[in-house]
Every structure is written in structure tokens, then in C-alpha cells.
Amino acid sequence: MPHDHHPHRPDDDHALTYAQQMEIAVRELLIAKGVTTAAEITAQIAAMDARSPANGAAVVARAWTDRDFRAALLEDAAEASRAMGFDLGPLRLIAVENTAEVHNVIVCTLCSCYPRNLLGLPPDWYKSRAYRSRTVKEPRKVLSEFGLHLPEDVQVRVHDSTADMRYIVIPQRPAGTDGWSAKDLAALVTRDSMIGTAQAKAPPVL
Q1: I want to staple 95 with a disulfide (CB 3.0 to 4.6 A). Which of 77, 177, 181, 191 is the partner?
Q2: Is residue 112 exposed (0-12), middle (13-18) or buried (19+ Cβ within 10 Å)?
Q3: Active-site residue 113, yes or no?
Q4: How confident is the model at residue 6 (pLDDT cuts 50, 70, 90)?
């Protein structure tokens, strides 16, 4: 019987960069000195890979349903997130809230600073030069290209992340969700809504 043939793809083999060589050398030295173990490093990598926007969505959903937590989140987002079990390390995290009058959007003009502990890896477009440069200059146009068209009377605020300070947007709670549990609400919170390039999803029409 004929076999399916896949198109040939060259191996992704290449010489290690200086930084990669240094990472390997330091890692092996730390293991040899007993500072850490290979198992601990593997576990930490797995924990980092497990981070996803679902963590941030859980934080937002609780802010929607718990007035005291919302106040704590707006006062110190890092500490409030730690109280939910999310380890942010020494990172300073600021929560900004969307309202009927104000829409917030996050960017990092220098590189790709991003609250990875809560949202996982940033999307490729967040790291692109076009997004980083244009969002601060013409945020409404950039948002419209994401399909988000805001009324003219809504103020757009752009927040620039730094190496030691990150932001998370609390999107507006969708209408028609009164009485919803935090778990059900979290399903409406998307990664892009926590960056500010989208709104939270509307509840399904029954």
C-alpha cells in the first residue's frame, strides 16, 4: 500500500549561542555543587510551562464577584494575586480597570515585558515592533485593527510595562451575567481582554 509522504523539513540544528552555552555551564555547575538538582530544574520548567491566561481569568472573575478582593487587587495586584496562590515573585503588578468611560490597553515599548506568571507567554504580536511603537501613538487605530471599536467619548489609556512593573487589565463584566459563579465568569475572560485589545466575551445566547 502506498504510504503518505510528509514534505521534507531540515533539522533545526545549529551551533549553540554564547548565552545558551553559559546557561548550560551555570546549570551544570549548580547541580554539581548541590545548589539544586536536575529534578528541581525540570519541575520549575514544568511549572513555568503550566502558566496560562486561565490564571489571570480566575483573578478577574473573583474581582467581578468579590468587592473586597477587587479593592485589594486595585490597591496591590501582586499581593492580591499571591493571596489566590499565584506566585509572582518580587514583581510589581498593577491592575487597571475598564469602565464605561475609560478603556485601558497594555504595551511594552522597550521589549516584551508581560505578566507571564498570570497570563503565560505573550502572543507574538505583543512583541512585534509595530504593536510596541504604534499603540502609544495611535491606540484607537490599533484597537480597531483588533476588531475593537470604541465610542469617541471613551478615553483610551495606554500603560507601558517595564522590567519590574507589569499591568493586567480588568475588563468590564459582560451584561447578562448576574448570579454567575466565578468559575463560569472566568470562561468569558480572554488573554486579549486582559491586555486590553479586546473585551471579555459576551455570554452565549440561549
Answers
A1: 77
A2: middle
A3: yes
A4: very low
52, 81, 112, 144: which is the annotated catalytic residue? Answer: 112
31-66: pLDDT as tens digits: 898 988 888 777 666 666 666 799 999 999 999 999
HSE-CB of 177 using CA atoms within 13 angstroms: 22
* Annotation says 52 is catalytic: no
| Superfamily for domain range 52-195 | Nitrile hydratase alpha /Thiocyanate hydrolase gamma (3.90.330.10)
- CA 148/CA 145 separation, integer angstroms: 7
Contacts of 73 (CB under 8 A, 6+ apart): 59, 63, 80, 81, 95, 170
Domain ranges of the chain: 19-49, 52-195
The pLDDT value recorded for residue 94 is 97
Is 193 noted as a catalytic residue in this protein? no
The one catalytic residue among 111, 133, 144, 181: 111
Given the residues 81, 113, 161, 193, the one annotated as active site: 113
pLDDT tens across 127-170, in order? 999 999 999 999 999 999 999 999 999 999 999 999 889 999 99
Give catalytic status of residue 144 as yes or no.
no
Of 81, 108, 161, 193, which residue is the catalytic one? 108
- pTM greater than 0.90: no
Q: Cα 144 from chain centroid?
A: 20
Residue 72 scores a pLDDT above 90: yes
Q: Contact at 8 Å (CB) between 205 and 199?
A: no
